[in-house]
User: What shape does this take?
Amino acid sequence: MPPLHLEILTLQTLNAKLSNVFVVDCEVTYHLGIKRVLGRMNMETKNNRYSEMHLPDAYSAPVSINHDDADDSISRRGFLGLVAASFLLAHAGQQSLRAESRNGIPYRTLGRSKEKVSLVGLGGYHLGNQADPQESIRIIRTGLDEGVNFLDNCWDYNGGESEIRMGNALRDGYRQKAFLMSKIDGRTKAAAASQINESLRRLQTDRIDLLQFHEVIRDTDPDRIFAEGGGMEAVVEAQKAGKIRFIGFTGHKSPDIHLKMLSTAARHGFTFDAVQMPLNVMDAHFNSFEKKVLPVLVKSDIGVLGMKPMGDHVILESKTATPVECLHYAMNLPTSVVITGCDSLPILQQALQAARSFQVMNSSQVTELLAKTAKAAEAGQFELYKTSHRFDGTYANPQWLG
Assistant: This one.
């Protein structure tokens, strides 16, 4: 394996060099089965401010992926290469995060859409199960008042209650503060169209900013969605009618299914605006979306929605990382937004503080955190969304697919 050529910079050195234009030529090579990435990073600033974050090509160069690669382990040198690439990326984005924020919450760009979204987003599932619906509304409005704008939801969450409560929270001018995302399960045109209209009604809005196909977790899902009479036809029609602005998809089961969805879209001449997937301290070690899918999204300028930073609290049961460490790890990746469930005001405040306190992790910090989680992550026992049907709503309710 060729040597790693990388200029490792302290924050002070980096800031000193970035007065006008700073170019880093880097060759990042890491062994992930047969994966190899070669890259160049270009960053430029004007008036001592970063322009929009430019990613090192550890995340933007073409990546060759073997879907049948059974060896997902990382060699020691490869591990260091991955850490170094992450370190460079993090330094590239730090000033961008500082330069653009609202009430201390950093903002990033949602890929090719060019929309600005908060670094932390409110997960919709956890907003539909408070005993008092007014508490759900308080959580949502507090988040928006504190500087968050990204709201996550889904047609099937809590039987629609999550969307109903969010719709009530978005009254009184709050809709104007939000970048509103929701998801549908429909794989047929009829089912998708019906769910879109029901979501609009529940959310009390005439448009959804980002609509996503939910739970792309079966190998058959991409072909069903893009088939004649499939769900994509309804979504594109809704976009043309002004009911939705951008289109994406989500899934938590397998990075290979995500790649199939992207390749199926490409065959149909379609490019998604955003893709949602688990990105966390365990995923980095096991059947990894970070390794397999993230480079493809960044290369294509597709918005990256990180979810399950704590694996719906299951990762915390491993006792290998704290909630804030989990959030900061996901924020340290080239994510547009990290979506986290906030079922109470104290948990919301924890997420807000994590966003406000986020500092780019250096290589030693990344190495140390991944070393702590490596053993626990080996078999996916703390990523039950990958290894069980516990999180598969459409597995238990296949009728939602249409």
Q: What stands out?
A: The domain at 103-401 is CATH 3.20.20.100 (TIM Barrel). The longest strand covers residues 40-46. The CA atoms of residues 74 and 217 lie 25 Å apart. The mean pLDDT is 82.
